[in-house]
């Protein structure tokens, strides 16, 4: 059997194990509530967001719906993959897997892609359903480029969280450490990053809370590049008109590439030296 | 003699263990492992790997399974049927070796067949799963969830993973743990059949007695070093542990000095409320007759099995207390010793 076929088979095995797990059955209602649910709410013609904003296009509605990805799907990605390596390691199955004639880089590739697809497939389906809901409520479709950008951005942010969890899982000797790291990283970037931004702004002499202050906007834009959620929103903003936060689309995509490659390289390196 | 299929040449591996300090928070140091180990495995041979806890048995098994990379030395493999051994990469090693680790705790809602298929796909032999499940006696449990398996069933599943892909070398780490006596007998029969087909097998165990009748040769490991390798007879002879008779009888300890003239022949003697036990070297063919004619009552007369402790003590020259558990007064009596401070 060729290496490609092996990688494909093992990836599908990881994917089916996770996709049809009890965990996924528990998380699916959360995803439905957060993604199509938000799309339904934000596409209401009478909706009025804080700041008096009313979304006027499908792309704009989906930008706000992306909060469902940040709060719901990323958490599901963490919960789905936090024990991707540690469970096998704790049970001794990892020793069996490491003794199989499959390169460790291929094993890590299968792990990443299998876990990623397990959260990506339902999320993408719900994301696509959300577009249909928005069209039903507003009668507007996004352009193909807008839709493509959002689908790729969703895929990337989920990949990053899957990678963080798998890295933690490969370093942890037991499940507790692994999930604590995964949820901790999710908590940091989802809730605490605003605090980090505020602290850096204060230390830099930028006035805090002045949302229209160009200095604050620029600083927040730059600091967002250091957070996966921030980069995700930068990517989505590349298709929004009237948003200028001092970061060009090229930079956003370049940083997204770095956020993908560095953790992937880290995980791959870790798997090459991992011991049962 | 059958040809050598695998050879370890001065193989060494030491575990990297953390050694943290304020100046080096991620500091590492070299720990235990195996040192300059030379070992040959022949085609169709069953080699028993024995040694106490921490001897390096599992480390050696993992090296042979291609999990740990050796840091020094070479691993050579006979790729053809000739006697030409050549260096082998870890990937190549993994393709010819089937590894059964110790105590794998299979768990989850996955079925037995699905779990085996997941491993088989890594080997590229997913289509042969049913046959293997039948071979290890799990065909009726193939649709059961892993959580429903007993320890013995889990052992069988682990064995099944080792048998995937018809490996040329089989590494079994404590394979009899959790198996019932019938399963052990069936397992031994399977191992003999595999060996007859040319599969070379290494069995690691703490217990010599449990596997002496199936292994062709024994390798004794202690503190990461190979102390001796050979047939059980060779090893017993080397350490003078062969030809020993254990005799037990009721009542007081008889006076053996008149019967056994060579005092060195009495190796051990023990007296309890239930009777006496002596272990003697079986040099005198008429010993039994002499004991009977001296009116000494005998309950048991049997050849004494060699156990691992005796072997290690003989090989290292250490006493049991030195290689066993160390019980010190500070761990047993953490409080004031009566009569000293009080």
User: Strand order across the biggest sheet of chain B?
Assistant: 6-7-8-3-9-10
Largest sheet of chain B: 6 strands, mixed
CATH architecture of the largest domain in chain B: 3-Layer(aba) Sandwich
Shape of chain B: globular
Distance between the termini of chain B: 71 Å
Q: Which radius of gyration of chain A do the C-alpha atoms yield?
A: 20 Å
**Helical content class of chain A:** over 70%
Number of helices of chain B: 11
Work out the strand percent of chain A: under 5%
Q: What gap, in angstroms, lies between the N and C termini of chain A?
A: 26 Å
Low-confidence stretches of chain B: 327-338
Walkthrough of the structure:
The complex is a heterodimer of chains A (about 280) and B (about 350). Helices cover about 75% and strands about 0% of the residues of chain A. With about 280 residues, chain A is mainly α. Chain A starts with a helix and ends with a helix. Chain B is globular. Chain B starts with a strand and ends in a 10-residue tail after the last helix. Mean pLDDT of chain B is about 85; it is low at about 325-340. The interface of A and B includes residues 5, 9, 96, 98 and 276 of A.
Short description, anyone?
By secondary structure, chain A is mainly α.
Give the arrangement of secondary structure elements.
The complex is a heterodimer of chains A (276) and B (342).
Chain A: H1 3-19, H2 22-34, H3 36-42, H4 58-81, H5 86-91, H6 93-98, H7 104-138, H8 144-171, H9 175-204, H10 214-224, H11 228-237, H12 249-273
Chain B: E1 4-18, E2 28-42, E3 46-50, H1 57-64, E4 72-78, E5 85-87, H2 90-96, E6 97-100, H3 112-123, H4 129-135, H5 151-163, E7 169-173, H6 181-196, E8 200-205, E9 217-222, E10 225-230, H7 232-238, E11 244-249, E12 266-272, E13 275-281, H8 287-293, E14 300-303, H9 308-316, H10 320-323, H11 329-332
What descriptive keywords fit this protein?
heterodimer, A: 276 residues, mainly alpha, B: 342 residues, alpha/beta, Rossmann fold, Alpha-Beta Plaits, 2 domains, six-stranded mixed β-sheet, four-stranded antiparallel β-sheet, 11 helices, 14 strands, 27% helix
């Amino acid at each position: 059997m060729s290496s490609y076929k092996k990688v494909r088979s093992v990836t599908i095995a990881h994917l089916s194990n996770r996709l049809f797990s009890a965990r996924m059955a528990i998380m699916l209602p959360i995803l439905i509530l957060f993604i199509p649910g938000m799309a339904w709410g934000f596409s209401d013609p009478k909706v009025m967001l804080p700041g008096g904003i009313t979304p006027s296009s499908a792309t704009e509605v989906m930008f706000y719906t992306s909060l469902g990805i940040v709060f719901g799907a990323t958490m599901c990605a963490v919960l789905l993959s936090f024990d991707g390596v540690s469970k096998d390691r704790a049970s001794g199955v990892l020793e069996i897997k490491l003794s199989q004639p499959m390169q460790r880089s291929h094993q890590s590739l299968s792990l990443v892609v299998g876990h990623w697809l397990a959260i990506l497939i339902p999320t993408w389906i719900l994301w696509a359903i959300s577009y249909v809901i928005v069209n039903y409520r507003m009668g507007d479709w996004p352009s193909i480029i807008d839709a493509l950008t959002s689908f790729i951005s969703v895929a990337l942010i989920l990949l990053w969280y899957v990678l963080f969890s798998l890295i933690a899982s490969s370093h942890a000797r037991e499940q507790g450490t692994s999930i604590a790291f995964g949820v901790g990283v999710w908590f940091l970037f989802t809730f605490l990053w605003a605090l980090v931004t505020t602290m850096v702004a204060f230390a830099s002499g930028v006035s805090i809370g002045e949302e229209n202050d160009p200095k604050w906007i620029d600083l927040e834009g730059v600091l967002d590049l250091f957070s996966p959620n921030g980069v995700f929103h930068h990517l989505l903003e590349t298709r929004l008109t009237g948003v200028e936060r001092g970061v060009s689309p090229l930079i956003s995509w370049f940083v997204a590439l770095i956020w993908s490659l560095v953790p992937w390289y880290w995980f791959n390196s870790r798997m090459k030296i991992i011991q049962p | 003699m059958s040809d050598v299929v695998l050879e370890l040449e001065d193989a060494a591996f030491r575990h990297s263990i953390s050694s943290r300090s304020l100046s080096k928070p991620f500091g590492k140091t070299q720990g235990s492992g195996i040192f300059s180990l030379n070992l040959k495995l022949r085609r169709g041979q069953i080699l028993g790997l024995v040694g106490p806890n921490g001897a390096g048995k599992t480390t050696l098994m993992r090296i042979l399974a291609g999990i740990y990379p050796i840091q020094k030395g070479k691993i050579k493999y006979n790729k053809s049927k000739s006697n030409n051994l050549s260096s082998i990469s870890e990937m190549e090693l993994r393709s010819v070796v089937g590894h059964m680790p110790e105590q794998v705790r299979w768990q989850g809602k996955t079925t037995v067949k699905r779990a085996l298929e997941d491993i088989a796909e890594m080997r590229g032999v997913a289509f042969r799963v049913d046959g293997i499940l039948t071979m290890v006696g799990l065909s009726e449990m193939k649709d059961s969830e892993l959580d429903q398996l007993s320890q013995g069933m889990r052992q069988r599943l682990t064995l099944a993973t080792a048998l995937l892909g018809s490996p040329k070398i089989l590494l079994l780490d404590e394979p009899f743990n959790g198996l019932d006596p019938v399963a052990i007998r069936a397992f031994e029969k399977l191992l003999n059949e595999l060996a007859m087909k040319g599969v070379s097998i290494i069995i690691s165990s703490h217990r010599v007695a449990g596997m002496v009748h199936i292994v062709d040769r024994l390798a004794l490991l202690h503190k990461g070093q190979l102390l001796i390798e050979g047939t059980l007879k060779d090893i017993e002879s080397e350490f003078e542990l062969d030809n020993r008779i254990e005799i037990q009888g009721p009542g007081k300890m008889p006076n053996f000095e008149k019967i056994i003239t060579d005092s060195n022949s009495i190796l051990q003697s023990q007296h309890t409320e239930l009777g006496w036990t002596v272990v003697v070297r079986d040099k005198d063919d008429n010993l039994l007759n002499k004991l009977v004619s001296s009116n000494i009552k005998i309950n048991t007369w049997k050849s004494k099995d060699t156990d691992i402790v005796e072997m290690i003590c003989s090989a290292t020259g250490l006493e049991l207390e030195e290689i066993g558990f160390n019980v010190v007064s500070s761990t047993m009596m953490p409080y004031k010793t009566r009569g000293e401070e009080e």
